[in-house]
Amino acid sequence: MKKNKLQKNKGFVILFSILISSIILLMASGIYNIVQKQVVLSSYAKQSQKAFYAADAALDCALFYDLSPLLVQTAFPIDVLGAYSTDLTCGGGDTEARLLSGITGTGDDDYPYAYVFRYYGLQENFAGDYIDSGCSYVLVEKKGTLGSLIETRVTAAGFNTCTDSLIQGVYNVPDFDDPTLLERRLSVQYATL
């Protein structure tokens, strides 16, 4: 009779150990999923910061060329007729600001003078190599007349992932094929005499 009772309880230990192992495996896979998501989120935060600082640097460049007392006149004038472009140097790179043609303002919120330029700061590391520090597009819009209040709106769109190849003599064009591409925008409005 005693031998028969032992036969019935024989598989209990194996079943119990499989149950405990399964619970531990489920907990470990849950922790792994949480850690993996946190790593991805922290990576996006770093890339978002890179895009933000690219937009911030480009915005600073536009503000310098528009408001600096060191310059004789603004690089974005409101009395331009026809084609206009000017060279800018910011962040270790040279670029060209151009007046967008065909933009004419008709309403109260329209800016008849709109300029655009691409900002690509070149950041050098300790080894002397240039590293990707993001890139930006900047739109400078103006309205008003000479001798009166001139309203200006500057918008900078910064990107975290840019191409490293030399395209038309410039570096750092946003890599729109990259699935991790992030864009951050900064905008400022002000009025001057």
Please describe what this structure looks like.
This protein has 193 residues and is of the alpha+beta class. It has one domain. It is 33% helix and 27% strand. A six-stranded antiparallel sheet has the order 1-2-3-6-7-8, covered by helices on one side. The chain has a two-stranded antiparallel ribbon with strand order 4-5. The model has no long low-confidence stretch (mean pLDDT 82).
End-to-end gap: 107 Å
Number of strands: 8
- The structure class reads alpha+beta
Low-confidence stretches: none
Biggest β-sheet strands, sense, barrel = 6 strands, antiparallel
Helix content, binned percent:
25-40%
- Cα Rg: 29 Å
Q: What's the total helix number? A: 2
Average of the residue pLDDT scores:
82
Output the helix-strand order. Answer: HHEEEEEEEE
Query: What is the overall silhouette?
Result: elongated
Structural key phrases:
alpha+beta; 8 strands; 193 residues
What is this structure's SSE topology?
Blueprint: H1 2-8, H2 12-67, E1 85-90, E2 93-99, E3 113-119, E4 123-124, E5 130-131, E6 135-143, E7 150-159, E8 183-192
Antiparallel strand pairs: 1-2, 2-3, 3-6, 4-5, 6-7, 7-8
How do you describe this structure in short?
The chain is α+β, with helices and mostly antiparallel strands. Helix content is 33%, strand content 27%. Strand 4 (123-124) and strand 5 (130-131) form a beta hairpin.
